[in-house]
Structure formats: C-alpha cells, structure tokens
C-alpha cells in the first residue's frame, strides 16, 4: 500500500501502486511493508560526503523522521541518512555509474535510452573479465544463451571440486545485452569486462567448502527459491545450466529474511519477484534517467545496509569484488588515456553503493593488489539457456523472467525507445542501429535531487487495459480446454472480474499478470489436474512461455561442429529442438556406417535421452544391419557443447575418459575390463586396447578384496570368447590376465572362505574363474597343485560357504557325489542343523557357477529339501531363495529349470508313478542314475566320447603304456570293461586336456584334403 503525505505530514492512504525507499517509513516516503522492524547493525559511513549538498533536505527529513519515530537519534537514523550519503557519493563520481538489476526490463529500457543520449566510448561491464572473447559469438546465437567457463583439470583447487563450472546468462530484456550490442556494433567503442575472473571466483571460496557452487558468490545464494510444484517448469528446460555457478549483475533482494517477509506480507504478494515487478519495475519503466539512477542506488544501499551479521563472509567477497573492479577500471584508464566523462560503468545497484576505500577514479585513489591466477586451464564456450533456467539459477519465481520479457516486448512496442540488437543475430529483424558516435560528449549536467519528488508524489494511476485483460481471459480458457479442463465462456468472464477484484484488494489500479494468474487458478482449476500442466503453468505459457535459446553453428566448439557434419548424411534437421527419428539401413546404404559408429559413441558419452537407440544393438561379436535412433541433439545442445571442452573429436574424448577411468585412484580390474570392452566396440585401436588390458592385469594383481569377482568373471569370459572367435591367438594381456588371476584367486581363496565380509556370490565367482580358466591357465604354465592346496587350506564355517567348498572338492575329485549325498542326508536328519539347511542349499545353487555339472545333484538336494524340511523352515526360506537368485545369479535359474525339466515327468498323469532317479527304488535304464566311477562322477558306456575312443584307440594305448597298464582292450559287455570304462571316464574327466587336444588334432586332419595327408 502506498501513502500520500499532505502538508501537515499526515499519511493518507492511496490505492495506487508507487515506489518509495524500500524498507523505510518516513514522511513522504512509503512502500508496502516499509517500517523497519527493529534496530539493525550500525550503518556504513560514506567517506568524503558532507551534510550540505544536493540531497541535504532529504537527508535532514529522514533524520528527523527517524528521531521522531524512534524517540531519539539511533542506528535507524544512521542507516536512513547513510542511504542518502551513498546515493550522493555514487552520483558524485566522475565516472558515470549505471546501476542495474538481474534481467530487469526497466534497466534495459533505461540503458537503451542512455546509450543513445551519451554515446560512451568505453563501457565497463560487471562480468568476468576472461569471458570477453565469447561476447563476439553472441551474434551467432538466439537468446537467451549463457557464456560459460569450464575447468575439469584443476591446479590450485581441491580435486573434490572438479569440474568447476561458471555460467553468465544473457537475455534480450537485460541492460547488459543492450550495452554489449551497442559496444560490439558501434565503431570506436570499447567494451571492457572488469569483474573477477572465473579463476578468482573459486579462489575466494573457502577451501574447506565441500560445495564451491554454494559459496562462490552472492549470485549462487538460495534466498528466494520457489517450491517445486506439478505445474512448474519441466526439469529438462530448467536444468540447462546444470550445477554451474551463476554470474550476473544486480542481485537486488534483501538478505534479511524478516525484512523480506515483512515486505511481501504488507505488499500482498507471494514472492519477491512479484514485489519487485509491482513496486520497482513498473514505476521505473517510464521514469527519466536521473530518477532511475538515484532510485536504484538507493535500493542497493538500503539492502546492503540491512544485511544480517551472519553475512559477514559474503560482505568481504562483495567488497573484494568492488575493489577488484575499481582497480581494473583505473588501470585501463591509465593505459588508454580515455576521458572519464566518456566512459560508462555498468554494475549491479548493490555494488554502486560501495563504501570501500578503493571506490572512484580520482587521482590518488589506492589500488588493490590482485592475486595471480592458478594453473587451472579454463575452457570457454556458449551454452543454450532458457527463462526457466535463469529463474532456477538465480532463485526467481517460476514465470517471472517470462513476464519480464513480455513487459519488455510491450514497452518496446509502445515506442519511445529503440533497443539495440547485434547485427546478424537470428532472433529476428534488427530493431535499431546504433547512431554514429558523437565527436565530443556533452558536458555532464549537474546532479539534481529527483528522489525527494519521486518518493513523495502519489503514484500515477493506470487505467485497466480491458482489451489486454479480455484477450488473456479468452486465451487461457482456450488453452485450458486443450489441456483437458472443462472451461467455458463463463470461466473467461469470471477470470476477468476476479482479476479486477484481486487487484483492488491488493491496492492495485490495474491487474498485473500475477493477479490474472491467481484469478485463472481460482476459476478454472478444481480438485485435480487432468493433464500434464496445471493452470499456473498454462498462464506462464500464455504470458510469454519459456523461451529457449540456441547456440548457432558458427559459435559451436569444433567437436560439436564435427558431430553435426558427420551426421549430415542422415538428412535430418539436427539443430531443431524436436526429437528426430533416424532410420539406418547399413546394408543398402554403406555410407551410413560411419554415422552408426558415431551415434554409438555419442550414446556412450552423452546423458540418457540425447541419443537413444530404438532398434539395433552393439555388443562384442554382434553388429546390426538396421538401426533406428531418436536424436535430441538440438534439445540437448549443452551436453554436446560441453563434450567440446574435453577434446576435438568424440573418439578423442572417449579415449581420454577411458584412460582416466582406469588410472583413477579407485579404479578396479572390473572397470578396466569394461573399458577394454568399450575400446573394442567404439575405438579401432588395438594399441589402446592392449594398454587398457595391461592396466587391468596390474589392477587385478593389486586388489586385496574379491568384491568384483563376479563382474571380473563375466567380462573376461566374454572377452575370451570374442578373441577366440575373431583372433588367431589370444592377446598377450589376456594370457597374462588369466595366469595372474589364477594365482591371485588361489592365494585369496582360503581367506575369502572364512571372511564374513566376503559373500557367497564372490567366492562362487572366484571358484568359477579358477575352474573355467583352469585348462587355459595350465597350458600357460600355471600349477594345478596351487588350486588343490588352496581348497585343502579352506575351512569355512558359514553353511553356504561349506556347501561351496564341498562342490569345489567334488570338482577336484576329492569328494564323490555319493559322499555329497550322504553328507546332505546327515544334515537333514540332524534336528540342530535343519533350520540352517536352506543356507546349504543357497551355497549349492551358487556352486552351479564354478561346477555346472552338479546341476542334477542340486535338483536332487532341492527336491529332498522340499520333501523333508518342515514348513516353518521351508516357507520363510523360499522367498529369500527367489530374491537371491534374481539379484545375484539370474543366469543360474535357466540351468536349474532345464535340469529339473529333464528330471521330472512332463505330465501330471506320470507324476503319481514317477520315482526319483536318485531313489534306491529306482530301476530300469530310463530312470536309473548312471553308476558312479571311482571319483564319484557318473559314467556311461555309450556316447560320443566312448565312440571317439573306440574309433581311435591309439591315444588310449599310448596313455595305458605310459601308466603301465597292459591289460588290453576288453569287450563292451564284460564286467571288467565296465570297470575300465568307469576308470577311463574318471581319468578323462579329471584330465580333459589330452582328449581335447586329440579331438582338435583329429578335426584338423579330417578337414585336410585326402591327397595332403
């Protein structure tokens, strides 16, 4: 609520919206929520300012008001008069200071007017000084975009901070863009960025901070965060800046939560953005330049002086920034010799009211010592931005930047000011062209007191723009119906009347977009949201929408341009923000094969959803002949651009990432094997693959735990199968990995069996590696006795690991199946062990990984458990068994199911007469289990192995002669032949290398032509 003061000093209420000194309540000065709630920290003295001067009447008026209200002079009077001193000091500086606020249309309008009037020769801009070269590329972009500084390899900063990322968003409705466009398109005008560099932003961050983005500067403070709601901006558009530190100008929000709450409550608004638009933006949009300047400095001074003591750390950084900027400006003036009267200093209103000693350009002003930059290598580029991303970065209310953009467009459409726009920018037709620079600037006019009149006069009454409000009401009803709401013409009339009613309740002569949005929510939205967007989000779309910028091709880094060039054969509009569907027939169109290779690399590097395969896959030994892709490169430009900070091509980036992953301090052998697999799939470099493989060997030998044993086993099996199918021999690193892993796991096996922190899955994977790689390891020089000693030295106590040990002993021939069956029967008959028997079963199931030949026995044990375990023990265990198999060993379930299908009858009719093959009552060749040999393993008198031995007896004769057996061959039906066949089967099963070598040799001989044998 604004107030009008008559001659007697009595405040008379007025329903119109005006602006006063925010946070004060003095005669002739008022704004909603203006009384200062208590006494704050002492004010900051403004050196060099004497009481007599331009603002002496206003200063005396504020002092008298503070004395009257507080009962005597105190800190309140010092604060109020100090604000006037700050304004007097800022306006008395020879270098003209232009105070601005974040993405403020009023500031942009004032900047455009002032630039055409003053025609400055040098513009000093509050922006990171090392971002200057990027500004030339803005003409190739569609706003809003953000200039970015990025560093992934740190030198001088904690490694935990990596990567460091800074963005400075630039929108069309901003004073900084107007200054940039004027300076870049006007001959003879120099644009100088004077704020701390990106390196200094993090230099000034406390090194003990775990989140540098939260402490890097005032722009990153979360002071007005709006709560998330279902109708908020889509996360994809609001996250265009990621976790970068936002750099901007003019963060004008009171940092005193009590003051801010007071202003919002008495201003009858929901959030700070609405308060600012109502009581600052609208009154200043049409104000003259001197009034705008004085009011903005006054607001910045007020909020600066009302900071709580807890902000002392940020106060120091703010003052250091001001010392930095004034030092840089004086250095530039001394080097260039430019006249101060022809310069313009554009900074946030918060920094315009600066109390530092280094303030000003007068002779003798001390400089501030600027520390050198660290050795960190910074990379720079442009990334797309959006209104929602700016709102999220600077904690503005959802829709506030879109409303500001709509206000800017309306103000420009009314005429009276021609904004600047960079030549060649694809945003549309250039609205205005900079005038030719004046030969000599006019003498600066003396500073006049505009504050007293502006703060004391009643606000100008605005009439209701019925045409605009009616258009809003009709359009929101139409938009709501498209999104599933049951809205009608009656709702449009209700929204119109409610908007005027709400504006009247809030003491506004004219409904604002915020009043209209509240009215639409009240009249249209009911209990549920029928679609994806609620009414408040629809209002944001109607009032301007979320404009999303785009970086032009010429402004992209080399990697991004290379990506678009290499995907050109697809014939798609990859720069569009819509999802593009790419169909590749690699057989009919071989020229698309390079595109397919590039898409798979991008799929590996970029976040999910940017490049998404619909049909086709790429795995070791597999290549698709047709592929289908959904491409969102235009929508996710930021992800592609940031790849350009890591290399020139995507292949180089992938190679750097793989090399960095295997040499990281937390690298593992499993991760190195994954890197080897990716290198084989995506990078045609055998040398690089061998380098990664050698690193995997080193990592495996250095590991002291076996947590990744299942992953190691899975990946090395896949790689060995790939090389056996594609290469004449295994690479040297593969052979070294097998031998190193065999010795490594043999050494750790006894400890893993007894270690409580090592799971059954890990021990089973170790045994799987040892048994499945045994033949290859022995052929490469390993000793089998090492494995036998490791198994004999293992003495586990956990039931599941005991079962694993029994399975390993059976594989080595140290324990027969009959002995295993006997031990399990003893466990089931022991009432003390029965509750723990499910754990033994879990161990036997996990044993299928190292000893898959035990599948019939595991089916037998599970069947016996189901038949003999009591329900209180069995039923609680069944869900645990299922979840364990699904999480840890899903590949073992098909093996068990197939074996059970071979064991159990196929129909219900045969179930009643079915006798388990392991039962003593089982008879007949169809149901009987084959006899066990001396080693306890089933043998058979028929089959391909027996046929091979009969057809080629020379090998068996040589082995028999070596072993000293001279019995000779027996007939198939004799008992001795059965015993001999059992012994031979046991021998072949225990030592399969001989039979495998003979089979390979015979296969090669049979493949040769008859004449060459």
TrEMBL record:
List the protein's name: Uncharacterized protein
Q: Which InterPro entries match?
A: DUF5682 (IPR043737)
What the entry lists under Pfam families is as follows: DUF5682
Q: Where is this region: Disordered?
A: 1-43, 205-236
Species the sequence originates in = Plantactinospora mayteni
Regions of compositional bias (Polar residues) in chain numbering:
22-37
């Amino acid at each position: 609520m604004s107030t009008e003061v008559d001659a007697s000093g009595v405040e008379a209420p007025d329903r119109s919206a005006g602006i006063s000194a925010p946070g004060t309540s003095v005669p002739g000065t008022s704004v909603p929520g203006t009384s200062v709630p208590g006494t704050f920290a002492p004010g900051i003295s403004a050196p060099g300012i004497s009481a007599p001067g331009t603002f002496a009447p206003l200063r005396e008026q504020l002092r008298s008001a503070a004395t009257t209200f507080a009962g005597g002079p105190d800190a309140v009077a010092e604060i109020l008069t100090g604000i006037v001193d700050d304004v007097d000091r800022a306006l008395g500086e020879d270098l003209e200071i232009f105070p601005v606020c974040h993405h403020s249309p009023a500031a942009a309008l004032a900047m455009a007017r002032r630039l055409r009037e003053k025609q400055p020769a040098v513009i000093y801009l509050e922006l990171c000084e090392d971002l200057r070269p990027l500004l030339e590329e803005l003409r190739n972009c569609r706003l809003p975009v953000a200039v970015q500084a990025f560093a992934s390899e740190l030198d001088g900063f904690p490694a935990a901070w990596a990567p460091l990322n800074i963005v400075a968003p630039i929108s069309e409705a901003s004073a900084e863009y107007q200054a940039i466009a004027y300076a870049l398109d006007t001959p003879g005008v120099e644009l100088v960025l004077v704020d701390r560099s990106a390196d200094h932003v993090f230099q000034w961050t406390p090194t003990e901070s775990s989140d540098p983005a939260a402490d890097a500067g005032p722009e990153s403070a979360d002071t007005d965060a709006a709560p998330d709601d279902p109708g908020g901006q889509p996360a994809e558009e609001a996250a265009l800046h990621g976790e970068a530190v936002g750099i901007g100008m003019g963060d004008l929000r009171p940092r005193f939560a009590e003051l801010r709450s007071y202003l919002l409550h008495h201003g009858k608004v929901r959030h700070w953005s609405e308060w600012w638009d109502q009581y600052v933006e609208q009154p200043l949009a049409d104000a003259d330049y001197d009034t705008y300047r004085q009011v903005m400095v006054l607001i910045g001074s007020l909020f600066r002086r009302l900071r709580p003591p807890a902000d002392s750390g940020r106060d120091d950084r703010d003052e250091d920034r001001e010392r930095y900027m004034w030092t840089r400006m004086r250095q530039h003036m001394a080097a260039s010799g430019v006249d101060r009267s022809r310069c313009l200093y554009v900074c946030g209103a918060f920094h315009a009211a600066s109390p530092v000693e280094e303030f000003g350009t007068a002779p003798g002003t001390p400089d501030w010592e600027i520390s050198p930059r660290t050795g960190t290598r910074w990379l720079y580029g442009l990334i797309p931005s959006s209104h929602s991303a700016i709102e999220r970065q600077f904690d503005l209310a959802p829709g506030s930047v879109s409303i500001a953009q709509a206000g800017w467009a309306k103000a420009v459409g009314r005429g009276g000011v021609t904004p600047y726009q960079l030549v060649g920018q694809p945003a549309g037709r250039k609205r205005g062209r900079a005038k030719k620079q004046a030969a000599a600037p006019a003498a600066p006019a003396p500073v006049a007191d505009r504050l007293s009149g502006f703060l004391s006069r009643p606000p100008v009454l605005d009439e209701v723009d019925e045409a605009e409000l009616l258009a809003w009401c009709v359009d929101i009803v139409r938009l709501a119906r498209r999104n599933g709401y049951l809205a009608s013409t009656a709702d449009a009339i209700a929204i119109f009347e409610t908007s005027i009613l709400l504006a009247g309740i809030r003491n506004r002569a004219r409904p604002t977009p915020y009043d209209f949005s509240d009215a639409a929510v009240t009249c249209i939205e009911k209990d549920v949201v029928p679609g994806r967007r609620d009414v408040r989000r629809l209002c944001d779309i109607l009032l301007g929408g979320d404009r999303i910028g785009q970086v032009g091709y010429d402004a992209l880094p080399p990697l991004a341009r290379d990506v678009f060039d290499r995907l050109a054969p697809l014939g798609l509009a990859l720069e569009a923000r819509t999802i593009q569907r790419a169909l590749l027939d690699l057989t009919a169109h071989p020229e698309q094969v390079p595109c397919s290779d590039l898409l798979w690399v991008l799929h590996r590097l970029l976040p999910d959803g940017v490049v998404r395969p619909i049909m086709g896959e790429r795995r070791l030994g597999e290549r698709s002949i047709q592929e289908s892709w959904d491409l969102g490169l235009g929508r996710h430009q930021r992800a592609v651009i940031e790849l350009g900070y890591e290399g020139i091509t995507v292949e180089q980036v992938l190679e750097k990432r793989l090399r960095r992953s295997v040499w990281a301090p937390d690298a593992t052998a499993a991760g190195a094997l994954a890197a080897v697999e990716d290198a084989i799939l995506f990078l045609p470099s055998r040398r690089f693959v061998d380098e990664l493989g050698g690193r995997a060997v080193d990592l495996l030998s250095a590991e002291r735990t076996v947590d990744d044993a299942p992953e190691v086993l899975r990946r090395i099996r896949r790689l060995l199968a790939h090389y056996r199918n594609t290469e004449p021999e295994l690479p040297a690193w593969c052979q070294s990995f097998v031998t190193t892993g065999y010795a490594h796991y043999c050494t750790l096996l006894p400890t893993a069996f007894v270690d409580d922190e090592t799971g059954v899955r890990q021990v089973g994977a170790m045994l799987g590696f040892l048994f499945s790689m045994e033949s290859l390891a022995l052929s490469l020089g390993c000793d089998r006795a090492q494995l036998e000693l490791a198994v004999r030295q293992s003495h586990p106590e956990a039931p599941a690991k005991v079962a694993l040990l029994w399975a390993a002993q059976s594989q080595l021939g140290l324990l027969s199946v009959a002995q295993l069956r006997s031990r399990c029967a003893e466990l089931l008959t022991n009432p003390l062990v029965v509750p723990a028997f499910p754990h033994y079963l879990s161990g036997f199931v996990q044993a299928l990984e190292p000893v898959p030949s035990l599948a019939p026995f595991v089916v037998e044990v599970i069947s016996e458990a189901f038949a003999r375990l009591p329900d209180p023990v069995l039923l609680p265990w069944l869900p645990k068994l299922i979840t364990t198999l699904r999480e840890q060993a899903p590949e073992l379930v098909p093996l068990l199911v197939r074996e059970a299908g071979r064991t159990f009858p196929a129909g219900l009719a045969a179930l009643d007469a079915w006798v388990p093959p392991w039962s003593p009552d089982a008879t007949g060749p169809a149901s009987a289990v084959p006899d066990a040999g001396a080693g306890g393993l089933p043998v058979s008198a028929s089959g391909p192995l027996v046929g091979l031995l009969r057809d080629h007896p020379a090998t068996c004769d040589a082995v028999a002669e070596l072993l000293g057996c001279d019995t000779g061959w027996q007939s198939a039906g004799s008992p001795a032949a059965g015993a001999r066949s059992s012994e031979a089967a046991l021998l072949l099963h225990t030592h399969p290398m001989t039979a495998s070598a003979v089979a390979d040799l015979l296969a090669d001989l049979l493949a040769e032509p008859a004449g060459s044998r």
